[in-house]
Amino acid sequence: MSRLRVALDGRPLQSRPLGGVGRYLAGTLPVLAEEVEVWVVLDGRRPKPVALDPRVETVWLSAPPGVPGLGWLELAVTPWLRRFGGLFHATFNTLPMSFAGRGVLTLHDLAPQRHAEDFRPLTRAAWRLYMRASVARARAITTVSQFAKGQIVEHFGLDAGRVHVAPDAVDPHFDPGRATAAPALARSLGIGTPYIVALGGAPRRGLPVALEAWRQARRELGGELSLAVLGERALPAQPGLHPLPPLDDETWATLLAGAQALCYPTRYEGFGLPALEALASGTPVVCAPVASLPEVLGDAACWAPSPAAEAMVPVLVELIRDRAWHEERRQAGLARARAAASWRDSAGVLLQAYERAAA
């Protein structure tokens, strides 16, 4: 009996380094390939992806230079899908509008709808239009948390049975054992110890809040606290602040494992994978109970009342001063990460969605 044929939008695998969606695909693809025939559709204008499972076929499709990703879906992917004849998994929020075949849609969050201020007007309008059209035409929808599912069901007026939760999981290289190599790595990057880490990227991640929380905590702790900011090069020079370019997974996992904390004043997450990766690395997370974070982190986080600097500073200072509490939070985080879903669990939900879409 022939197996189901599934093509996936593989562009997230072409990011350097991988973002959260790329990790999601890299983690689930080997399991998916055990059960279905998998084709990964790639943008011919972008870099080669990370090494893929040998059972996965790759298809390179190009669009004219300057055509954005939504245009690539229409001009390059849809004609190929018509010849392919199988199921298409839109892995990053949008199905092509010109595709009338069987589709599974993964929505990772509703940021364009819930945090419009983080997007340029034209980008926001395009995402909203495509997401609504994609939801209407998808035969099955998956997302990464119960929180995100609730928002999707409410916003689009869907039956809850149409939306399946296939959560993010942690890759094995996020491991507390890496902490032993972290001091040498920090020295090589010019980072003083002790240090905490924060993330650049989308405005909703709250980097200005993290910077102010670190400044205030540094003053209270007598100036002996550095901050490493991942993925943010253009920051004003100041003692103890270390903006870093995007790092490869191994380097980031080691740096994270050696940090005293992840300062994570995000306002909105569909899941919050960096926080779970920090827990798995033995690094406590200081954040507010917003969006999906209570679901993902449970009682393992160092909760601040709100994602504001004045709310986060007391928690951050206590965590670093009180070594017993720090160790208790570290152990709670490791236990939470061990109990989290695996990529195999998530792939199992995706396979169920494929079966529903193909029926």
Structure description:
- The strands form 3 sheets. This protein has a 7-stranded parallel beta sheet with strand order 3-2-1-4-5-6-7, with helices on both faces.
- The chain starts with a strand and ends with a helix.
- It is α/β, with parallel strands linked by helices and 359 residues long.
- It has 2 domains: 5-169 and 342-358, Glycogen Phosphorylase B (Rossmann fold), CATH 3.40.50.2000; 176-339, Glycogen Phosphorylase B (Rossmann fold).
- It is built from 13 helices and 13 strands.
- The chain has helices at 20-35, 69-84, 111-114, 121-137, 146-156, 182-188, 207-220, 249-257, 273-280, 293-297, 309-321, 323-339, 343-358, and strands at 5-9, 37-43, 57-61, 87-90, 103-106, 140-143, 163-165, 195-199, 226-230, 241-244, 262-263, 285-287, 302-303.
Keywords:
seven-stranded parallel β-sheet, alpha/beta, 15% strand, Rossmann fold, three-stranded parallel β-sheet, 359 residues
